[in-house]
Amino acid sequence: SITKERTEVILQGTSSLDPNDPAAVWEELDFKCKPGNLKRRPCFISPYHYRLDWLMWFAAFQTYEQNEWIIHLAGKLLAQEEETLSLMATNPFAGRAPP
């Protein structure tokens, strides 16, 4: 155990024209091995790890200013770049307009 609390960065998007609308539905982009759903079986690929997922774990302990790459990641996800989307476990916007 490293910490007693689990802090994580969660990336979400919405198809709503007004993201501030209380009725906007926000959908989470899942990572392949980052902790997320507590009921999901843990990812185990020994002795390797998914670097992006590992970086997301550390980013949760700092600010986005200390992890500028998160802004670039979000931009690439918004642009629906295939290379970036291949790093994700799920894309709730597949086959739909970008968030």
From TrEMBL:
GO CC list: endoplasmic reticulum membrane
InterPro entries, per the entry: LMF (IPR009613), LMF1/2_C (IPR057433)
PANTHER family: LIPASE MATURATION FACTOR, LIPASE MATURATION FACTOR 1
Signal peptide as annotated in the record: none
Annotated ranges, domain Lipase maturation factor 1/2 C-terminal: 2-99
GO terms for biological process, alphabetical: protein maturation
Source lineage: Eukaryota, Metazoa, Chordata, Craniata, Vertebrata
Stretches assigned to coiled coil: none
Short name of one Pfam family: LMF1_C
Protein's name according to its UniProt entry: LMF1 factor
